[in-house]
């Protein structure tokens, strides 16, 4: 998949250097700029855009950035909404475009959506799904869900009403999970870029096997994962580089035998190339991963597609923590 071309982004990519990721917490509501203890990339690690973008919200790993305004009652159980609308390239694991409405029929080709429905059924939370932007039109609709999952959405997948609704939902303490091409979505909306951790998709190298390193094994989403595990993906390169987040997993670029240089010339992220992280953002919780390209990652039992079991464990933990069912970004 290619990001829309931009002379500015091309210039940024050309100037990328192997420097540590800058970490800060945006000052909102009286919180100190140093709060949160967010993890930075190791010195000499990730490539980045110089500077730390200011998204005008409270963000980072300090739980004081979360709003607990009573919008979610655990006694009512837990439910997520899987949103997979594409307004540009569509990943094969999404299958054919879904009809309008909530919970339209799924075919066997709608692999990722069906896998998330099963994940919920197996782990005690309800799952609705849609590609109808009208289902996101009001915060009242979204507050029925403990988390919203953007499953490989693409390009301008939200209209103005849905953008406003999503922002109000997050400000009300809602959870967000972004999977794979959620990073190829809403390029021209800075608030959404911040929701992704102040990061965005730039390009990727060849889809190939690699080794994922579990950077933080104390988080809900990484608990029980091995320190290193095999996986195959497109290994997204990012501009900007994530900031003010807790890094959870990274790919060891030395294991990528086909190289990491992207189609638009991004050189990769050197000694620290993150693939999953979490943060509090503008009142809500955000857990994201760049992984999830191959359909087999969602369905294989781990014997034929290396790392499928670990990927689903990572994703399950991310969903459960983002919706408040388990501790978040601890």
TrEMBL record:
Residues 1-40 form the signal peptide. Keywords: Signal. InterPro entries: Class_I_gatase-like, ThuA-like. It holds the Pfam family ThuA. It comes from the Bacteria. Residues 110-301 form the ThuA-like domain. PANTHER family: GALACTOSE-BINDING DOMAIN-LIKE SUPERFAMILY PROTEIN (PTHR40469:SF2), SECRETED GLYCOSYL HYDROLASE (PTHR40469). This is ThuA domain-containing protein. It comes from Actinomadura barringtoniae.
């Amino acid at each position: 998949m290619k990001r829309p071309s931009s002379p500015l982004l091309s210039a940024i990519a050309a100037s990328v250097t192997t420097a540590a990721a800058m970490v800060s917490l945006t000052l909102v509501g009286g919180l100190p700029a140093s709060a949160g203890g967010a993890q930075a990339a190791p010195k000499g690690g990730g490539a980045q855009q110089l500077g730390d973008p200011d998204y005008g919200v409270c963000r980072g790993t300090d739980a004081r950035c979360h709003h607990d305004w009573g919008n979610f009652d655990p006694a009512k159980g837990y439910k997520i909404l899987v949103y997979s609308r594409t307004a540009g390239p569509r990943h094969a694991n999404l299958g054919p475009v879904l009809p309008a409405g909530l919970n339209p029929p799924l075919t066997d080709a709608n692999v990722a959506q069906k896998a998330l429905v099963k994940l919920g059924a197996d782990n005690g939370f309800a799952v609705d799904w849609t590609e109808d932007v009208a289902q996101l039109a009001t915060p009242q609709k979204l507050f029925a869900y403990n988390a919203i999952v953007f499953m490989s959405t693409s390009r301008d997948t939200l209209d103005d009403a849905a953008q406003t609704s999503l922002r109000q939902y997050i400000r009300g303490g809602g959870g967000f999970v972004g999977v794979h091409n959620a990073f190829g979505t809403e390029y021209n909306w800075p608030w959404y870029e911040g929701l992704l951790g102040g990061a965005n998709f730039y390009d990727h190298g060849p889809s190939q096997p690699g080794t994922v390193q579990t950077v933080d094994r104390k988080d809900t989403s990484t608990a029980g994962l091995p320190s290193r595990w095999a996986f195959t993906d497109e290994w997204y390169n990012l501009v900007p580089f994530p900031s003010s987040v807790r890094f959870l997993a990274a790919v060891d670029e030395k294991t990528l035998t086909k190289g990491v240089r992207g189609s638009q010339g991004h050189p990769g992220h050197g000694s620290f190339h993150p693939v999953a992280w979490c943060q509090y953002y503008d009142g809500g919780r955000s857990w994201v991963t760049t992984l999830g390209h191959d359909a087999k990652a969602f369905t294989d039992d781990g014997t034929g597609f290396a790392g499928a079991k670990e990927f689903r464990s990572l994703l399950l933990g991310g969903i459960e923590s983002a919706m408040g069912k388990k501790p978040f970004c601890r």
